[in-house]
Structures are given as C-alpha cells and as structure tokens.
Design a protein that fits this description.
2 domains; Rossmann fold; four-stranded antiparallel sheet; alpha/beta; N-terminal domain of TfIIb
C-alpha cells in the first residue's frame, strides 16, 4: 500500500486513525503522481511511522508514540510501498494485517483470527516486547452479528477454496478482456464508458470503487487521472490485480462495504460496477457510502436488472458458491437510500440510432444518486 492510503482509511469499528507499523517495504517508483499529498509517510527503516492525533490516550497509544518517527518527505510516497506490516488503531486496540501490499480492514466477525494471530506471532521477533504485549491484549468481538446475510459475505471471502476450475481466475490477469466471452467483455467496456462521465470528477479527485474485484475499473480510473481507491471483500481478486497491474496501481484493500473503513466526507465520487447486487444489507451499505462521500458527490451504480437472480447463470452461481445474486431497479435503489443523505435517484438511458429506426431510448440499468441533493425525485 502507498502511505497516502492513510488519507482515506480509518478503523472500520471506531473510525479511529490508523498508524503504520512497517516490517517490509518494497521499492515501487511510480511514473505518475496522481496520489494526493500525504503528511504521514514513514521514513526508511522506521518500524512505527508518524502517529496521528488521537481522541483519547491509551496504553497502546503510548507504546506507539514511544517508537514513532517524524514524517518523511511526502515524495517518498511515490517511491516505496508498504509490503508487510500492521495498521494499528490506538483508539480501540484493533490491528489489521498488511501482506503482499494489501491491507485487510475487515470487521471482527469476518476476520480469520487464527490466521491473523499466526501472522502477529510471525512478526513478534521484529516488534518491541511492550508493543507486542499491547497488540496481544486485543480481544475481538465475534459474538452474534446484528445484520443480514453474513453467510453470503463469508461465501465471498472463502471463494478460493470452492473453485475447482483451474481457469476460473484466468480472466483476472487480462481483465476486463475475457478470451472465452468477448461479447461480455465489450458489454463491460461500453458500460464503463457510460458511467465515467456520470462520476462528475476532475483530475486528482478521489473515486471509491466498491467491490472492485479484479480492479480493472479501479486501474482505468487511475489511468484517467483520478485517485482511485478500490476494495473488495475477497482478497484473491486483489492479489491477481496486484500481479497484473504492477507498480502503477491504485489503492487496493480488503474491506466490507457495510462496515466501511473510509473516513467521513473524504471521497469525491463512488462507483459500484456490477458489485452492489452482491451486497446483503443494502440500506446499511448506502448509509456507509453516504457517510464517506463529500457533499454533492455522486454514487454511480451499473448493475443487473431486477430479473437477474432468476437467470440460469445466477441461480447456478448462488447454488455452487453460496454468494448473493440479486438485481435491482430504480425504485429499489430509492428504497435502499431512504433515510440517508443520498437523494436524486436517477436512471440513465442510452440513445440508439440505426438504419431501421431513427432513434430510441433503450433502458439501461445505470443509476446515480447525489449526496445532499435537494430532491429525491427523478
């Protein structure tokens, strides 16, 4: 991860600031400097980077402050990336692993705690004993979950263990191009060309790409001049994206949209590209996305229609992998957003010309909402 990701991410539980504990960096000099200024870049060979201002003191905060360093020059953000380490919240004691350049900022009930504790113990030889003791003290809250459809999320997370087809992950290495389905490839590209103007962003603006999967949309947004921030609940997709894209890659991390680790009012626009229909609790997801958007920011959804879950392919996927496939239409989107600051729900149509008919409006399941817009009608 680039240190400038700290401009956007926070603890998913308490929204406290995160501190980088760096165990390994890699030189990742990028050719473009779309990423925003970051005042908390860790110096070379620093274990604990610059600490933020916390809302209250804690024993863990004291340990982090003891080993903290001053910020390095901001340009170092464009030269190196954090490959392995921890993101630590001194507010609530939670810590999140960073491995293979990918942070995982999941809520307690979706984390693999056996794996994470093993990772922490592997890091123990590089951590001061007093800091390690504080990290070990944290006890996750893995009791009953208040929410809907957690089994769908766990199915998404565990997807790699269910894949028997060795070619399943292949398209990710050339995404969005799928050599076995060129028709779907061009459907994706055409839809992306339609949604990009609806984001209504300028060069350097931050765009959140939810459920980014193989992250080709996140990559293309970065190449278009936006600071793209992509996340998915399934790590396997992001690992393939890191390999495919190389060093000139967008911000990528593992997260759950219903427990979004993004700071308030930090995102200019949000894209849900064939991703929102996998979310179980859409009302909660809308509220989280509204919180992260800046006033006036757009949420753009390109999703399957309401009959999607009745298609043969969707039914087969749900039965085989246990994931959620549920389409939506404009009234659904309005209902999901009701009570949040997202209003002005609109559906966008394609104007099509041909030799046999002069023109016609073709319904397309691309919808937008605005944070703080004056009307919820369209």
């Amino acid at each position: 991860m680039r240190y400038s990701l700290l401009n956007f991410i926070v603890c998913q539980s308490c929204h406290g600031e995160l501190t980088c504990v760096t165990l390994r960096e890699a030189r990742c000099e990028i050719s473009a400097t779309i990423f925003s200024f970051c005042g908390r870049v860790s110096p070379a060979d620093a274990l604990v980077g610059p600490v933020p201002v916390w809302r209250h003191a804690s024993a863990l905060a004291g340990r982090l402050e003891r080993y903290a360093t001053s910020a390095a020059p901001p340009d170092r953000n464009f030269i190196v990336a954090l490959e392995e380490g921890l993101l630590v919240c001194a507010e609530c004691g939670r810590w999140y692993p960073v491995t293979g350049f990918i942070p995982e900022i999941l809520p307690d009930h979706l984390r693999n705690w056996d794996r994470d504790r093993t990772l922490l113990e592997k890091m123990s030889g590089s951590l001061p004993s007093d800091l390690l003791a504080c990290l070990r003290e944290f006890r996750p809250d893995v009791g009953p979950v208040v929410g809907q459809g957690e089994h769908y999320k766990l199915a998404e997370i565990s997807l790699p263990r269910k894949i028997e087809d060795p070619s399943f992950w292949g398209p990710g290495y050339s995404a969005p191009f799928n050599p076995w389905n060129t028709e779907h490839t061009w459907h994706l590209i055409r839809n992306f060309a339609l949604v990009e103007p609806l984001l209504d962003v300028r060069r350097g603006d931050a765009v959140l790409d939810l459920g980014c999967g193989y992250s080709w949309t996140t990559e293309w947004l970065l190449r278009s001049g936006y600071e793209s921030v992509g996340f998915d609940i399934c790590r396997a997709y992001l690992e393939i994206a890191v390999k495919r894209i190389g060093v000139d890659r967008p911000h990528l991390f593992v997260a759950d949209v219903e427990n979004l680790p993004i700071r308030n009012d930090s995102i200019h626009s949000t894209l849900g590209f064939e991703a929102f229909h996998h979310i179980p609790n859409r009302v909660r997801a809308m509220a989280e996305l509204a919180r992260a958007l800046r006033p006036g920011g757009a949420l753009v959804l390109a999703e399957p229609g309401p009959a999607h879950e009745r298609s043969g392919t969707a039914a087969e996927v749900m039965e085989k992998f246990g994931t959620l496939e549920k389409g939506m239409e404009l009234d659904d989107v309005r209902n999901y957003a009701a009570g949040s600051s997202l209003t002005l729900a609109q559906q966008h149509l394609i104007l099509r010309f041909s030799e046999t008919e002069t023109k016609g409006c073709v319904p397309n399941n691309i919808m937008t909402l605005r944070k703080g817009a004056s009307s919820g009608l369209s």
